[in-house]
Design goal:
The complex is a heterodimer.
Chain A (H helix, E strand, L loop, with lengths): L8 H7 L16 E4 L12 H9 L4 E2 H8 L3 H13 L3 E3 L10 H12 L2
Helix pairs in contact in A: 2-4, 3-4
Chain B lengths: L3 H4 L16 E9 L5 H8 L5 E10 L10 E15 L3 E9 L5 H8 L4 E6 L5 H13 L4 E6 L9 H8 L7 E4 L4 H24 L1
Parallel strand pairs in B: 1-4, 1-5, 5-6, 6-7
Antiparallel strand pairs in B: 2-3, 3-4
Helix pairs in contact in B: 2-6
Classes of the chains: A mainly alpha, B alpha/beta.
Chain lengths: 116, 205
């Protein structure tokens, strides 16, 4: 990467307070997230990555997009996002499904693609 | 792999936010051997510049470097793009290497996916066997094979490709110049149409 940043296990460990896994396992790369706009400020002790995450997510973005913009691994951003979700600073726009999307949704997607 | 996106000047994320009307997301995997045109296809369809994340995975080192022992940690770039369909749904295209040693990376990605587009190059079809085997062995994903028609590659009838790859009956095979948006979108349509057929058959059963 251009800024010299490389993912490194020790770095991730420090950034996430020693956790390898997010506090919830429903976040997927395509899960849509959006910052909660209720005027609440992050606590003074919040890290710069949490701040950057919320700043980037003022509109709706998928978890993977957040990771790409923040130049951090998706797995790490999932941990940070989980904390912000738990604290109510971030909201999930699209609950991710573990199953194959249903016929109705697939047909809608197909119709949408046919309009291009 | 150095992706074009990591060299591009930073883009203001605000200009890349999804429309407020978008309320859900679906994803498609774009898999295939290195250099086969995965990112080309994603870029042709995507409404945003192709993005890239790097993931650290623990992968079996078979075929990588036997001196490193059984397992090794490696960094893999994942290119992806997005297109909004029907105003309410964001369709993500995640490009990922399909080889067995990257399985850890795409195993998580495969869950909940609409299906997988397997991009192949007719000059090195044999590299696609492992990708197709992995999909068949580990997932129940609808699969569509996309032959990337490189300008200097020989043209094969899609039936010949189907036979060479020994595809399960009903697996769509499409071909096109994946730099062209229309043809890349057609490949995506073929996959989603296939997923619709399979889902309907599943409902009827």
């Amino acid at each position: 990467m251009t800024d010299g940043y490389r993912d490194h296990p020790v770095r991730s460990y420090v950034l996430t307070g020693g956790r390898a896994h997010p506090s919830r396992n429903t976040l997927r790369p395509e899960t849509l997230l959006c910052a909660v706009d209720d005027g609440r400020e992050l606590p003074v002790g919040a890290g710069r990555h949490e701040r950057a995450l919320l700043e980037t997510c003022r509109g709706t973005l998928a978890l993977a997009e957040l990771a790409a913009h923040l130049r951090l691994p998706t797995s790490l951003v999932a941990v940070l996002a989980s904390d912000l979700l738990d604290a109510g600073y971030l909201a999930v726009r699209s609950p991710a499904s573990h199953d194959l999307p249903g016929v109705d949704l697939l047909e809608e997607v197909l119709d949408g693609l046919r309009q291009f | 792999m150095v992706s074009a996106s990591s060299e591009a000047p930073p883009v203001d994320p605000a200009s890349l936010h999804l429309a407020p009307t978008v309320e859900r997301s679906v994803k498609v995997l774009v898999v295939g051997a290195y250099g086969v045109g995965k990112t080309t296809l994603i870029g042709a369809v995507s409404e945003i510049p192709v993005l890239s994340t790097e993931e650290t995975i623990t992968a079996a080192s078979v075929g990588v470097d036997p001196r490193l022992g059984e397992k090794t940690t490696t960094t893999v770039a994942m290119d992806f793009g997005r297109v909004t369909v029907g105003g309410t749904t964001a369709l993500y295209l995640f490009g990922t290497p399909g080889q067995k040693r990257f399985w850890d990376l795409w195993a998580g990605l495969a869950e909940g996916a609409v299906g997988a587009l397997v991009v192949v190059d007719t000059r090195r079809l044999e590299e696609s066997f492992e990708v197709l085997d992995q999909l068949e062995e580990h997932t129940a994903l609808p699969v569509t094979v996309v032959v990337n028609e490189f300008p200097d590659a020989p043209r094969h009838a899609t039936d010949a490709v189907r036979a060479a790859l020994d595809l399960p009956p009903g697996t769509p095979v499409v071909a096109g110049d994946l730099r062209e948006r229309r043809q890349a979108v057609a490949a995506l349509q073929a996959l989603v149409a296939h997923a619709v057929r399979l889902a309907r058959a599943g409902e009827a059963a």
